């Protein structure tokens, strides 16, 4: 447990945005507490609660996880790593010129 706490403390300094780092520090303590009390099952429950919270969030009137919810393979390319802008604009132009059937 000491090693895990030390690694999470060191890893928290690697996050560049301050607001994200604060939210992860706040989430770290309930995760460690649930892991201490219930073990791996507690970690799974906490991750499920975090996922449920993310599903409930809305940003600018759109669901926060809208790009993941109705699965379309063409929308998955921007989920983890953003494609170059040229490729993105080319695909947008192709979709606009081709009407839905």
The amount of beta strand, in percent, is: under 5%
Percent of residues in helices comes to 55-70%
Number of helices: 4
* Silhouette: elongated
Summarize the structure.
The protein is mostly helical and 101 residues long.
Describe what this molecule looks like in 3D.
There is one protein chain. This protein is mainly alpha-helical. It is 60% helix and 4% strand. It has helices at 2-11, 18-38, 40-56, 85-97, and strands spanning 58-59, 62-63. Helix 2 packs across helix 3 (40-56).
Quickly list its features.
2 strands; 101 residues; single chain; mainly alpha; 4 helices
Layout of helices and strands, plus pairs?
Elements: H1 2-11, H2 18-38, H3 40-56, E1 58-59, E2 62-63, H4 85-97
Antiparallel strand pairs: 1-2
